Write a sequence for this structure.
């Protein structure tokens, strides 16, 4: 096998590992009612099937990315994939609430460790910007397709067999991916820890991020202004401040503060957090909208979101690379953000009971187009200024921004939608109309959030320094792989 084809095969293997994680994030949501009925979860207890995963995942991303730089990204990736696969077995075997929540927490650890280094490995595999555009397009396609696959598979497996099998399906795929990864992926030694490991710094940042994610995901129950939310949020920020102070003085910091000297990386992370809050918030609340207002079942919900996944996937894998090569990632990203704003505004101002074709299909397709143009470009801009030995860290920071931003956005949007619904009900509206009113307010807030990212992109971000023409053979070898 030629070196070029070997690199694209490596990309496919990495994307398969990431697909497992993306599918798992959505497949569980569809199975939650069955899990609740089988294991006797309360409504608040059921949330911990999701929250346990999110806290571990969001809390470990940054540290895991840096561990890849220090000890070798292939090694860290394989360890994470192994933990995720083993935890999937435990999830499937769970017969009580504590076991499932604990297994989900372990699964989040594995997901964070493996996914944190993937972007850095892609940058290493494809150092030329022309090839990176294509590679990140494939990566974005996998992410968008995985979300739709999770929704469809969750409904199908839960209805045909049982919820246990949504976890068991990860096992053979994870095992095969691990074997292929060990054989095909190039080994790297990492930069090492010649001056010692900053263990205290690692503990501080992990606990700070876990507390932060915990505060965010629990704020929907306690309220954004509650003593619980403010107290744990303040503690998280205090630990984060202590971590930053330690990194500024340390000889071998986990997070060298020099990475934030890059205007592109720093701003791109803010944009990533805000874009993720809008997109992830929409998908979660959109599922509830389809279920509670339009009375869709699990399979119908998965099918309803297919326009987003298909359009995002097609543009990510087939057109985004050519457009980025022709116009530059900054211009393509601006175009994607504009399209996303239009789509979310159409959803927010649109009718509430006009049916799927008139109400949802066109804006969902436009939202997929906006995402397909924006996210590959954003990744290229964010990683463009990172040093080779900091690529894993930059990848971890970008992933952390997306996870924390998504969790925060979901909490805020759920609170706003719930408040709007309550006001409409108290004013005499029927429950379906009140729910629709709350969700439509959330879509408009999502549109406003993307407008903020558009302003940041235009005013603050700058074009990556290097721009190389796309080579047709890269497209051909990507398709062949």
């Amino acid at each position: 096998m030629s070196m070029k084809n070997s690199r694209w095969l490596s990309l496919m293997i990495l994307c398969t590992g990431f697909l497992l994680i993306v599918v798992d994030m959505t497949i569980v949501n569809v199975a939650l009612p069955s899990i609740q009925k089988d294991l006797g979860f309360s409504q608040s207890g059921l949330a911990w099937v999701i929250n346990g995963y999110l806290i571990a995942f969001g809390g470990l991303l940054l540290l895991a990315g840096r561990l890849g730089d220090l000890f070798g990204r292939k090694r860290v990736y394989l360890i994470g994939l192994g933990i995720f696969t083993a935890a999937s077995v435990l999830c499937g075997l769970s017969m009580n609430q504590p076991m499932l929540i604990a297994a989900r927490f372990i699964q989040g650890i594995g997901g964070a460790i493996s996914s944190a280094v993937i972007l850095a490995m892609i940058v290493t595999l494809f150092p030329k910007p022309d090839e990176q555009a294509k590679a990140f397009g494939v990566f974005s396609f996998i992410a968008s397709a995985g979300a739709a696959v999770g929704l469809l598979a969750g409904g199908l497996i839960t209805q045909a067999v049982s919820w246990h099998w949504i976890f068991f399906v990860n096992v053979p795929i994870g095992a095969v991916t691990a074997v292929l990864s060990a054989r095909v992926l190039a080994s790297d030694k990492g930069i090492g820890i010649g001056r010692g490991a900053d263990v205290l710094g690692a503990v501080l940042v992990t606990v700070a991020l876990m507390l932060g994610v915990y505060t965010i995901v629990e704020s929907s129950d306690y309220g954004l202004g509650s003593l619980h939310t403010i107290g744990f949020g303040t503690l998280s920020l205090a630990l984060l401040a202590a971590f930053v102070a330690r990194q500024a003085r340390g000889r071998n910091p986990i997070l060298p503060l020099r990475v934030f000297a890059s205007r592109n990386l720093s701003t791109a992370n803010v944009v990533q957090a805000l874009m993720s809050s809008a997109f992830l918030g929409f998908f979660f609340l959109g599922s509830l909208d389809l279920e509670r207002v339009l009375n869709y079942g699990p399979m119908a919900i998965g099918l309803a979101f297919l326009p987003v996944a298909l359009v995002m996937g097609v543009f990510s894998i087939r057109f985004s690379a050519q457009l980025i090569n022709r116009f530059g990632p900054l211009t393509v990203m601006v175009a994607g953000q504009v399209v996303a704003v239009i789509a979310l505004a159409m959803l927010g101002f649109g009718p509430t009971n006009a049916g799927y074709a008139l109400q949802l299909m066109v804006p969902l397709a436009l939202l997929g187009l906006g995402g397909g143009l924006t996210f590959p470009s954003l990744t290229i801009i964010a990683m463009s200024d990172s040093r080779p030995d900091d690529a894993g860290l930059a990848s971890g920071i970008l992933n952390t921004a997306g996870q924390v931003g998504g969790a925060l956005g979901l909490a805020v949007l759920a609170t706003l939608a719930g408040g709007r619904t309550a006001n409409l009900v108290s004013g005499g509206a029927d429950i379906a109309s009140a729910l629709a009113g709350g969700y439509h307010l959330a879509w408009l807030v999502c549109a406003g959030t993307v407008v903020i990212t558009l302003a940041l992109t235009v005013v603050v971000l700058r074009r990556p320094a290097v721009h190389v023409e796309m080579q047709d053979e890269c497209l051909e070898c990507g398709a062949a792989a």
